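Running low. Invent one:
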Amino acid sequence: MRMPLIAGNWKMNTTLSEAVALVKEMRPGLERIEGVEKIICPPFISLAAVKGLIEGSSIKLGAQNMYFEEKGAYTGEISPPMLAELCEFVIVGHSERRHYFKETGEIIDKKVKAALKAGLKPILCIGETLEENEAGKTEEVLIKQLGASSSRAYYQGGLVLAYEPVWAIGTGRAASGQQANDTIGFIRRQVSAQYGKEVAREVHILYGGSVTVGNIAEFINQPEIDGALVGGASIKADEFLGIVKQTSEIKQAR
């Protein structure tokens, strides 16, 4: 059985001092929870400080984005080698990057390749908009997004998938557990068809979109869902701890 994975995407929240305080508050509780891979993804400015605070713990660190070039005249960007000295994971292709910053499938694929080359594990986000969902285009969109940023080598390098329906992100309108499970099952079948059953069995596929301590059990109880990419609830210590704790209890009870 795949170990469940809970990743907290802090987005553009917390100053450096707030990030330090939040990690100090969460670390003891997170350390006591076993059977779950725990990842926190603070803003770039806090990565070095958070790395020091979680050193020697079971908590892992991720970044929220990166550029695909290793170095150069790209003012304001952060390269994969810069991140590789600080963290293990990096979120790629989040819907906010796709829609607000117009990142294409080609750009996201370059980021995935560059992350893996630098030894980082990408958490690749895919998902449809409300308009696409209501038009019955969910599967079509997901196939296109998977095809743009996917290869057998990516999965062997530790690629994690996160299904995040755009209409559920930050809206308080989460998909139902059954909806998310059915869609993630479809994603897993696509991976199996392209790269084989072994790859599909091993890849972690998370759900993301208005995940809270109140609804996490609905998702974790589903057989296809391996964990969650948590947004707003990940910057509230009690909420995030509750999400991780419930995940551990549900998975270990199986």
